[in-house]
Write a structure and sequence with these properties.
This protein is mainly α. Helices cover about 60% and strands about 5% of the residues. It contains 22 helices and 9 strands. Strands 6-5-7-9-8 form a 5-stranded mixed β-sheet. A two-stranded antiparallel sheet has the order 1-2. A hairpin with a 3-residue loop joins strand 8 and strand 9. Helix 13 packs parallel to helix 18 and helix 17 crosses helix 18.
Length: about 550
């Protein structure tokens, strides 16, 4: 029955069904609030917004809220479109090389892996860069076969690629796609003239995309901020906590490759016993083999739950198995000389480039962000593994373990300290958080703070200092961050130290009219400076709760 339904229709229905129940739960006031606040600022107050390496992600989110409503829930609806877009692009890219029979089976675990452990479901620098990169890849691959429209398709590929670095600066290194692709085209017999024209077409698209970006930044007065931000990211003094600097790309690349090796080692560690189990299943009855598979699935689920509860090593097992299945694919294809095998070599190379260069610069979050950069590698390994398992029993075992691991990881990551996420019953009074549920230990003090701010008279457009860090408050109250960046810790690297506060307040003379202090304050005690004591004494406490206090500057 399902064979009669187009794959695109299944994706359009299945992906929203999988993710929709979860968008109403798990509210994080830090990462989620930071992206939401800067997205609102970049559209509502572009002259005062700050520029960061994921500027385009914030801009697109801000535009979306202008259309769909000012709320976290609307941003999470946008994430559904991101998932659907990623799945459709994968289906279109892989459909150029494989029969579509197994493609959905290969794409599904990929999407489930993306959903696993993603607590800040917003279209940030994890989701948006893969969308642009896959879009550029899709048109590039289509251009290899469409001889009459190849230059137009290359132009579109370059145009979409132009926006990739603006969604995450280190992703500019994925430009190696066109360099390596050009050499592969020439090696396959394409004339130099055609290769050069294809590259020029892509370059023209890049120039147009960059021109549009620069023109927009100039029109909203953010061009200087962008230039300064890029120079900072590329400077030797940059040390962004998210690893977004590219001043030493070779070192970052080597660092990523070393981590890839460790992840692959995990996959090999899983494959070794699987190989011997498969050898032991030779000659046994079908019933015994089925029971063995069930036992492997149960063991995998148990191991996944254990790793999740320990909060260590959740993602290396599926990532390592994906790497290993892809390497097995390359090994099986090494002696193939058919035209189809030659065509697939493009896909294999692009998958490798995508995995390596789309993750460069994410060293601190490598195992989390890597699942967003194996979007081609994983489904290729699964499709080839499904084909191989008819003659290689141990490959079948690996595929079964991979499916069990990813499925159980998706389910178990829906748990929190209080059980299943559906047990969260607390609701927020802030309109921007309407429709969302969280633990009452979070909603109760946040609602008290929201009501206290209204009683004090803090209104939209007021300048506010949230200390130590509460970026979500700027979003829900639509207040202007005193330090431009809604997350103080992100202004400089590390914790919002007293030195940072002193520099910004005394040297620049920016004494905000209101301050919200969160408790417990990590700078209390021995680390607390005399300056902070003096600074707080300048303000009057106008409201206080168990988790916060609101200070107002005297008239």
């Amino acid at each position: 029955m399902f064979k009669r339904i187009p794959g695109t229709v299944i994706i359009l229905v299945l992906i929203p069904v999988l993710i929709l129940p979860w968008i109403f739960y798990n509210v994080h006031l830090s990462d989620l609030g930071w992206h939401a606040a800067k997205s609102w600022m970049i559209v509502a107050h572009p002259e005062g917004a700050f520029w960061d390496p994921s500027w385009l992600c914030s801009l697109l989110s801000g535009w979306w809220m202008e259309l769909a409503g000012f709320s976290i829930l609307s941003l999470r609806v946008a994430v559904i479109f991101c998932y659907v877009g990623i799945a459709l692009l994968l289906y279109g890219i892989l459909g150029e090389f494989y029969e579509r029979t197994y493609l959905l089976l290969a794409i599904l675990p990929c999407v489930l892996l993306l959903m696993s452990g993603t607590n800040h479901l917003v279209p940030n620098y994890y989701f948006v860069p893969p969308l642009f990169a896959l879009s550029a890849t899709y048109f590039y691959i289509r251009s290899l076969r469409a001889k009459s429209r190849q230059f137009l398709l290359m132009f579109l590929s370059g145009f979409l690629f132009a926006f990739l670095p603006m969604s995450r600066i280190p992703s500019v290194l994925f430009a190696v796609l066109y360099v390596v692709g050009g050499f592969m085209e020439r090696r396959s017999g394409v004339e130099w003239r055609v290769v050069i024209l294809r590259q020029v077409s892509a370059l023209a698209g890049v120039i147009l995309g960059v021109g549009i970006t620069v023109a927009y930044l100039y029109s909203v007065g953010q061009l200087d901020a962008m230039v300064n931000g890029i120079l900072l990211v590329m400077s030797d003094t940059a040390n962004n906590a998210g690893g977004e600097n590219i001043h030493h790309p070779v070192r970052l690349l080597v660092d990523s490759l070393v981590r890839y090796g460790k992840v692959l080692g995990v996959g090999i560690g899983i494959a070794a016993p699987a190989f011997f189990v498969a050898r032991g299943l030779r000659g046994v009855s079908p019933q015994t083999r089925r029971l063995s598979y069930i036992a492997m699935v149960l063991i995998t689920i148990g191991a996944t739950v254990y790793l999740y509860l320990c909060q260590v090593g959740m993602f290396p097992p599926p990532l390592g198995l994906a790497f290993l299945l892809f390497i097995i694919t390359l090994w099986q294809q090494k002696n193939e000389r058919s035209p189809e095998s030659s065509r697939r070599s493009y896909l294999y190379v692009i998958a490798i480039l995508f995995t390596i260069f789309m993750n460069v610069g994410s060293s601190n979050n490598m195992t989390f962000s890597l699942k967003f950069t194996i979007l081609l590698l994983l489904p290729i390994g699964v499709v080839e593994g499904i084909v191989l398992w008819k003659r290689e029993e141990w490959v079948k075992v690996l595929v079964i373990i991979l499916f069990a691991n990813i499925t159980s990881l998706f389910i178990v990551s829906r748990l929190n300290n209080h059980g299943f996420v559906f047990n969260q019953q607390g609701r927020f009074v802030a309109p921007a958080l309407a429709g969302l549920y969280a633990d009452t230990s979070l909603t109760r003090p946040y609602n008290e703070l929201t009501e206290a701010m209204a009683e004090v008279g803090i209104v939209e457009g007021d300048t506010l200092l949230c200390y130590p860090d509460l970026p979500m408050l700027h979003f829900t109250s639509r207040t202007i961050p005193a330090f431009v960046n809604p997350w103080i810790s992100d202004v400089f690297v590390g914790f919002p130290s007293d030195a940072l506060i002193e520099k910004r307040l005394t040297v620049e003379g920016k004494y905000p009219p209101y301050v919200v202090r969160g408790y417990p304050d990590k700078v209390e005690g021995e680390e607390k400076s005399r300056f902070l004591d003096k600074f707080w004494s300048r303000y009057d406490t106008v409201a206080r709760g168990d988790k916060f206090s609101i200070l107002k500057r005297p008239e």
